[in-house]
Amino acid sequence: MYRAEIFANQSVQDDIVDVFEENIPGIQYTIVPVVYGHGQNDYKLGTTTWPETNFMMVSYIEDCKEPLLKASIHAVKEKFSGEGIKCFLMKVVEEQI
Questions:
Q1: What CATH class does 2-91 carry?
Q2: What's the DSSP call for residue 19?
């Protein structure tokens, strides 16, 4: 199982959600709608100086769906090449407690 964390400008949130739901059967996710930070090229602080903000999506996906997630995020990054869309994947172990 993988934990996927996606960080991107709020302007592409709907596109990312749509492509995931179209291409990854049964995907479940959580969205943190407003995320502030300093990325590689600029700030996203929601202030008058730096007005933009990001969102974060977290999803736990089965190993077999990891290639679908990578292909989906790649498609969105190609469509919005000027946006800082980042995806981090971490291998996790699900424990039954």
A1: alpha beta
A2: H
